Amino acid sequence: xxxxxxxxxxxxxxxxxxxxxxxxxxxxxxxxxxxxxxxxxxxxxxxxxxxxxxxxxxxxxxxxxxxxxxxxxxxxxxxxxxxxxxxxxxxxxxxxxxxxxxxxxxxxxxxxxxxxxxxxxxxxxxxxxxxxxxxxxxxxxxxxxxxxxxxxxxxxxxxxxxxxxxxxxxxxxxxxxxxxxxxxxxxxxxxxxxxxxxxxxxxxxxxxxxxxxxxxxxxxxxxxxxxxxxxxxxxxxxxxxxxxxxxxxxxxxxxxxxxxxxxxxxxxxxxxxxxxxxxxxxxxxxxxxxxxxxxxxxxxxxxxxxxxxxxxxxxxxxxxxxxxxxxxxxxxxxxxxxxxxxxxxxxxxxxxxxxxxxxxxxxxxxxxxxxxxxxxxxxxxxxxxxxxxxxxxxxxxxxxxxxxxxxxxxxxxxxxxxxxxxxxxxxxxxxxxxxxxxxxxxxxxxxxxxxxxxxxxxxxxxxxxxxxxxxxxxxxxx
Length: 478
Ligand code: NAP
Prior knowledge:
Elements: E1 3-6, E2 13-17, H1 22-39, H2 44-60, H3 62-73, H4 77-102, E3 105-106, E4 113-120, E5 123-127, H5 135-146, E6 150-154, H6 160-172, E7 180-182, H7 190-195, E8 199-205, H8 208-221, E9 224-228, E10 233-237, H9 243-255, E11 265-271, H10 272-288, H11 307-322, E12 326-329, E13 333-334, E14 340-341, E15 344-347, E16 364-370, H12 373-381, E17 385-386, E18 388-392, H13 396-405, E19 410-413, E20 428-429, E21 432-433, H14 438-443, E22 446-453
Parallel strand pairs: 5-6, 5-8, 6-7, 8-9, 10-11, 10-18, 11-16, 15-16, 18-19
Antiparallel strand pairs: 1-2, 3-4, 4-22, 9-21, 12-15, 13-14, 17-20
The structure holds NADP nicotinamide-adenine-dinucleotide phosphate.
NADP nicotinamide-adenine-dinucleotide phosphate binds at residues 127-131, 136, 154-157, 186-187, 190, 205-207, 209-210, 213-214, 228-231, 262, 359, 361, 387, 427, 431-432.
């Protein structure tokens, strides 16, 4: 079956690609293996030079790259531009910080020398989703390549042009041939790639189903895996919160990326005392969102990425309503041939309804009324997911309890959850395991090699990979 790039705003076919044949795939694996042997010895200064050039290219080519993103998966063009610029920022972060993160750590043990040295693992397979088709890939590739690993990308089938564009950027930035290759393959071909003994590890960002299948195989093969899966993040609002700000951010947090973000707030858990006020203002805010052509600058919400996604979302909304949820606004598909869905608010989805425990991947919010903070925490944790949480309160004792008791990978107080290259990103429970970004993310695909040198005459270890070369600012060296 061909891999098709379809514009979700109008259903038109943009491009069609044949998946790689087994022979073409074999050649790419051989090239990756060859590249790793060379690339692992390339000094860090040279890698940083390429990484900075990559950042500069992302900045220079933002408009074209953002257009490709919007046309393939439907996010508003202004959001696509921000995504490309964030990729430049993560490249610069790792170019600036890799030497610190990769530096050997001396640990006094009574021996002459003892230390931990960080070695790359080899070829890492990245199985990625379409929702942030650049950012998800770059937050893997920037630390992986700075560490001396080599990447193979199996991107989501609906964003092949993004996949090709990223491979081209990496190559043009000066990274050696084969350091990062896009594999235009179908999901069913992943098993064979991961099964190849040259693949050292795998990272998956996507649904539970994909994570489960790939991690099961990785476990069987005893290969390292990192899983960044779904989320149904709570957004808790307590009486002491600044309600104006909380409502404004709540709408933004639900609708960001057309509602298709793993860390979008999806369940709004509001204290009884302020619930009615929050509900009416939140519904009004959702109704003000401008849904339409993602290429237009004033669009807030574009089409959902595929026909299947909009159909699944519609079915979930209908199921929740028939189980007893109140529909406060929206609930229907809109605007003809594109995959548009109305910003929707459901209140009181019953716990017995499966949708209560599912992720809603589109602009659909669930509201819950709670009696106090304990009740809020209980509802927030009553989910199979554990990605992140946003909580709004100015009461310090409530803040402490929320930070301690919420079961998730990140808690943001009086702020919207967002990823940041400097901070670890990832989840617990069925949101996955492992971390991306920061030092923690880079070390997921490194071997923490313990070295003990007992002999007092042993030469001190000098890790020449970490020598930094002097270099010019690549923004001026295209
Ligand atoms: P998906 O259907 O799981 O697809 C993700 C990737 O996995 C695609 O490349 C897909 O390929 C591949 N894939 C799917 N099933 C597979 C299988 N059985 N074996 C091997 N590969 C398989 O997820 P999605 O719909 O693209 O993305 C949405 C999900 O990702 C949401 O649940 C969202 O919350 C989650 N997500 C999580 C994070 C995070 O950081 N935690 C970030 C973004 C998104 P094909 O496209 O060819 O099927």
